[in-house]
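> example.struct
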């Protein structure tokens, strides 16, 4: 169904524009999700393969507890911050592309 007031050559409402934006957003989402899952799976793997390092006390706590209790949440926040920053940048670039395509058509 066409958008009211748009023309068939309106790049902003085209399937090409939306598919490109969705593809880049999906790639960013998968990258961030893979980073989170890697972080989540790293702790048990480190405990299994390097128990002597993970059991070493740091500030009175085992290193595992330090990673899980103190460093895990800031790392998750960092992944979220990177996702938001890059998502906004993607949308900004797409808006510039749409404006340049619109001015080329006009």
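> example.seq
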């Amino acid at each position: 169904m066409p958008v009211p007031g748009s023309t068939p050559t309106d790049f902003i409402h085209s399937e090409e524009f939306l598919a490109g934006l969705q593809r880049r957003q999906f790639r960013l989402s998968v990258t961030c999700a893979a980073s989170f899952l890697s972080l989540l799976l790293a702790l048990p793997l480190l405990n299994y393969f390097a128990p002597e390092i993970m059991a070493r006390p740091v500030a009175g706590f085992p290193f595992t507890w330090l990673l899980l209790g103190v460093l895990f949440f800031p790392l998750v926040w960092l992944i979220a911050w990177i996702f938001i920053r890059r998502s906004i940048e993607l949308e900004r670039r797409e808006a510039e592309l749409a404006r340049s395509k619109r001015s080329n058509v006009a």
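> remarks
The helical segments are 15-49, 51-54, 63-105.
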